[in-house]
Design brief:
By secondary structure, the chain is α/β, with parallel strands linked by helices. Helix content is about 55%, strand content about 10%. It has ten helices and four strands, in the order ααβαβααααβαβαα. The protein has helices at about 1-5, 15-25, 40-55, 80-90, 95-115, 115-120, 125-130, 155-165, 185, 190-205; strands at about 35-40, 65-70, 140-145, 170-175. The protein is globular. The mean pLDDT is about 85.
Length: about 210
């Protein structure tokens, strides 16, 4: 599970990220503007490796990325939010196994990603910190909510502000009362309009 592997510093999503990029080239999508729509911190983990591959692997540098939409992400090392997310994933799991896995995850997260992070960051930087200084410069849209119990709204806003200070075109929208990755379900028309307008603007800018 990526919750455990990424917490341990194992880059379990690095290979899937490259495979996804290869698929874009296999289906000739690479010749068209590409928009990434990233959901929650699980999506951020994968996106982080996509960004790294685009920057370090020459074959991928020709990909025409128009922009990125972040839905309910990214968040820092939020133990409470991480536990809630994992509990949701394990909802149908045996109760004893579920609580054992939650305890194991919490213990590992506290030791490796909080107490020892000043040291472990040299081995495996957090996804949040990696995105703060990501080399990508295409537009970014952040969709978040004060009512999100998993990802703190303040952390999403901090990321948006930091990226904007780098000269990136950034827009952040607070849905106020919708739950984690539930903004489209609660506000379908508003959410769709935000995404389609952003996509249209990004494609127009990429063709200039």
């Amino acid at each position: 599970m990526i919750f455990f592997s990424e917490t341990f510093g194992i880059r379990s999503l690095q290979t899937p990220a490259r495979q996804l990029l290869e698929l874009l080239f296999d289906y000739s999508v690479a010749n068209r503007p590409v928009l990434f729509h990233v959901f929650s911190n699980g999506g951020v983990m994968l996106y982080r490796y996509i960004i790294e591959a685009l920057d370090t692997h020459k074959p991928f540098k020709n990909l025409k990325v128009a922009g990125t939409i972040f839905d309910s992400a990214p968040g820092r090392r939020n133990l409470r939010g991480g536990l809630r997310a994992l509990a949701t994933v394990l909802e149908s799991t045996n109760v004893l196994l579920k609580y054992f896995l939650l305890f194991a995850f919490a213990t590992t997260a506290v030791v490796l990603r909080i107490l020892l992070y000043p040291l472990t960051r040299f081995i495996h930087e957090s996804h949040y910190d990696a995105l703060l200084k990501a080399p990508s410069r295409w537009p970014e849209l952040y969709l978040y909510s004060q009512a999100d119990a998993i990802i703190k709204a303040s952390e999403v806003k901090d990321m948006a502000d930091a990226r904007q200070q780098l000269g990136i075109s950034v827009k952040a929208v607070d849905f106020s009362d919708s739950a984690h990755v539930s903004h489209m379900r609660v506000y379908p028309t508003y959410y769709s309009n935000l995404c389609t307008t952003f996509l249209s603007d990004c494609v127009t800018d990429s063709q200039r």
